[in-house]
Structures are given as C-alpha cells and as structure tokens.
Amino acid sequence: MDLVNHLEGRLLFAVPKKGRLQQAVLDLLAGSDIQFRRDNRLDIALVKNHPIALIFLPAADIPTFVGEGKVDLGITGLDQIKEHEAVTPPTQDTGAEEVLDLGFGSCKLQIQVPEKGPYADEKDLIGCNICTSFVGLTEQHFAKLEAEEHRTTNGAGTTGMTLRTKIKYLSGSVEAACALGVADGIVDLVGAESGETMRSHGLKAIRTVVESRAVLIKSKRPSDQKLVDKVASRIRGVIAAQQFVLCQYNIHRDLLSTATKITPGKRAPTITQLDEADWVAVSSMVEQKKIATVMDDLASCGATDILVLTIGNSR
User: Fold this and answer.
1) pLDDT value at position 195?
2) Chain-centroid distance, C-alpha 83
3) Which helix (H) or strand (E) holds 54?
4) Which strand ranges, in their side-by-side order, compose the sheet holding 304-310?
5) What is the pLDDT of residues 117-135, one digit of tens each?
C-alpha cells in the first residue's frame, strides 16, 4: 500500500521512532486503544480504528513538524521543544502548544564539567569550549551569563554583544568530549534519578538548564480539534490509571471521618451502607506511590477488609 497517498482526511500524530521515550509512548497508545500495525521499514502507520496516521520521527524533529502545522499532534521531550523554540521562536501562527504532561521520561539538561577540573561554577566556563547536542539552549543560556557578567563589570548595555563562549555541536557521545580534550564542559541530558553515565565519565553537574519530561503537543491549527480532544482525553485516562489505584475498605461509621481524611479521593470517596448496622464500605482513588502508607494508616484507624485494585483506564 502507498501509505503517503492514504493520509488525506487523517489526523497526523508524530511519535518518537526510537530512543528513551519510544516504548513508553507505544504503551500509552495501546492503553488508549489506538490500534495500528507498523512495518519495520516504514515511518508511517495507519490507525485501524480512528482516522489517524502515526508518523514515526526523531524526537528532536517532532516540535518542528508540529510547530509548522505539518503534523497535528506529537509526543516528545520538553527539552526538544525548548531547543526548537530557542532556535525558532514561536509566533502567533507557528510553534507547538503543550496539551498534557505525560508523567514519564523525566531528565535534566545540565551543564557538566570534569569532577577533578578547575571549574566549580557555570560562570567559570564563559569563553571556554562547550560541546552539546542542544546548541540553541546552550547559546541562549551562556548569552545570558555573559550579559550578566558584562553588566556587573561595565554597567553598560549588552546590545550587539558577540558570544565569547564557543559552542560546538555534537550529535552523540557528548559525555566523551571533555576526556578527549574537545571541550572544557558539556551540556547534556542526565537521567532524573541515576546520572550514572555522567559519573562514569568523571563528570559532575554544576547547573540545570532545563528540567524535561514527555509531553503531548499540538499544532496551533490542527486539522480536527474534536479528534485531538478525544485522543488527549484517552491519554489522560491512561495516565490517571497508571498513577492511581482503587482502594476499598470497610469501617465503622464513627471512624469514617478519620478514614476519609486518609483517602479523600480525587474528588470525594464513594461511601456505601453495609447490611451490618453502623458499618460502611468506602471506595477511593489513591496515588499508587502512596498506597502502602495509606493501607498502614487505614489499618491503624480501624479499617478492615482493605483491598487495592488496579485501574485499567479512567476519565
């Protein structure tokens, strides 16, 4: 099938073709019942149960396609969006709009220097060699540092200043640049929790430029706003289901007010009278990461028959 000629009338939805976000995005699409089959050699997949075509692109390119209105929806990292905006500032008609924080893919774009090197502060790197894949954000950040230094030293304006810090683009293996003598410091992504790669290369972070996570974005003029809203609603439901569990328990009515303070729910708990006098059943959504503590607290206040159920989806 000539897929390119079957895109007419379909909402175009860009997703990462590889990298750290791809599997989580595919799981999100499956949970949202967006059904498709992708040929390994193709970067376009037609969705079977909706007038949608998935376009598999490098994460760094997605803000460009969405921002220019060539694609209606996209999922990428906030770091890539900020980088695109640093190079191509949004206008009234161009640029991507954030629809939803997806709650995964957390990382930080950080200035890193050798642990045993002479640089302790980001200002120490002014005028030095910096390697990065995020040239726009890095130039923007060091331009601000240089402007601040200039005002502090000279007390004069900064119009027309030329960037003294030398920013070099590398498409990959940025963390090796310092060890190989190419850079005095780098600006690169670091996992929100580990930072293992950074430390294994003898580097330390001295400043965070951007805190990133995966986001759903849309163009300012999507071809089908109703379908955009439907997709966003489905994805929002999957995320809620991943973040919450349903906690159910029985408790004496005299202890109900104490128990519901422990499980207030997203809006309010559901309370049902039991056949046994003065006893009620309570159902409430609880954040998954807090459920063990919540169960301990419920048991301590007199709740019995405490159950925790996974949520398949939520709206």
Assistant:
1) 76
2) 14
3) strand 52-57
4) 270-273, 279-287, 244-252, 304-310
5) 899 999 999 999 999 999 9
- What the block records as the tokens of 26 is 């595919």
At which residue do the structure tokens 């004496």 appear? 252
Half-sphere exposure of 244 (CA within 13 A, CB side): 22
DSSP strand pairing (11-16 vs 52-57): parallel
State how far the Cα of 290 lies from the Cα of 204, in Å rounded to an integer.
32
Distance (Å, whole) CA 144 – CA 3: 46
The conformation of residue 78, written as its DSSP 8-state character, comes to H
Give the residue from 209, 191, 137, 122 showing the smallest Cα distance to 169: 137
Instruction: List, for residues 81-100, the tens digit of each pLDDT value.
Output: 999 999 999 999 999 999 99
Amino acid at 201: H
Give me Rg for the CA atoms of the chain: 25
8 A C-beta contact, residue 195 and residue 208: no
pLDDT < 70: residue spans in the chain: 1-5, 155-160, 192-194
Alpha helices in 179-287 (DSSP H): 196-200, 225-243, 256-262
Measured distance CA(272)–CA(22) in Å, rounded: 42
Q: Which two tokens stand for residue 8?
A: 């007419």
